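Researcher: Quick test of sequence recovery. Tokens follow.
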């Protein structure tokens, strides 16, 4: 282990895995995907948000209805596209109707959301206003849930202020680093969350979204992240998992030992590739 790495002093959380997918190919394919995700042992089916896609709430309701134990979640809801009450109401409703199998993933929105917010007639707001909107959404969700129900909240965060907010409010914090971010940068983000969380640090699950599994980068993914495989390798990107199942198992254990990251999501094209790792690590 490189001398720059520090072993975590917080008890490790069990591994769990999610798949990010969309119902772009229609309801039959969407249901088949949800069932395959569950069959392979993944914990959660996650769906992005944006007006270029169907609404995630009915789509995820269909996926939950088609499966037995699979969790479903937004990854992540763009706060500027709904009022706080609307987002919280939809999240609470789906959480109740799935018997607690829904996770609200929420964030302040990528730059493209500014145009989408204008389309739906809502302000995009400043970064501070969007963070406040996320906070109001979560507070409203907690009010709607009441004492008898609790919807888990995932926050995707990158900047220092967003990381501090996530450390205060979220059950799971996805470290939304750029694909070019190396191991040390992501480790620093994880440390910032733990520091800001204080006594909550041991309760927070840390997560990352992996863009590439294996030794090939699909063209569509390369266009999405804007870098090639060689650059990801050169910067030791945490968005990359290389090698065979055994090597990936070792790498994920190393990451958990040194950063606390125990939750990993991948996009649908890597669903089958990561399955042997999911089988070996889930729950351990």
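Model:
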């Amino acid at each position: 282990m490189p001398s720059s790495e520090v072993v975590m002093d917080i008890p490790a959380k069990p591994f769990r895995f999610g798949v990010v997918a969309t119902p772009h190919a229609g309801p039959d394919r969407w249901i088949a995907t949800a069932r395959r995700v569950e069959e392979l042992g993944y914990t959660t089916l996650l769906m992005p948000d944006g007006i270029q896609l169907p609404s995630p709430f009915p789509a995820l309701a269909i996926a939950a209805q088609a499966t037995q134990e699979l969790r479903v979640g937004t990854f992540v809801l763009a706060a500027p596209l709904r009022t706080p009450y609307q987002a919280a109401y939809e999240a609470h409703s789906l959480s109740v109707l799935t018997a607690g199998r829904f996770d609200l993933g929420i964030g302040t929105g990528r730059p493209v959301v500014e145009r989408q917010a204008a389309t739906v007639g809502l302000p995009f707001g400043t970064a501070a206003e969007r963070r406040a909107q996320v906070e109001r959404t979560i507070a409203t969700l907690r009010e709607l849930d009441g004492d008898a129900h609790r919807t888990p909240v995932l926050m995707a965060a990158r900047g220092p202020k967003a990381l501090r907010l996530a450390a205060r409010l979220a059950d799971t914090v996805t470290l939304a680093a750029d694909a070019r971010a190396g191991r040390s940068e992501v480790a620093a983000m994880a440390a910032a969350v733990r520091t800001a969380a204080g006594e909550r640090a041991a309760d927070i699950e840390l997560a990352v979204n992996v863009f590439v599994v294996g030794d090939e980068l699909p063209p569509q993914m390369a266009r999405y992240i804007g870098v090639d495989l060689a650059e990801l390798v050169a910067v030791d990107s945490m968005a990359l998992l290389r090698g065979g199942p055994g090597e990936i198992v070792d790498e994920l254990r190393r990451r958990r030992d040194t950063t606390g990251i125990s939750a990993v999501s991948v996009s649908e094209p890597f669903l089958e590739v990561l399955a042997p790792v999911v089988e070996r690590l889930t729950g351990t």
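The chain is about 45% helix and 15% strand.
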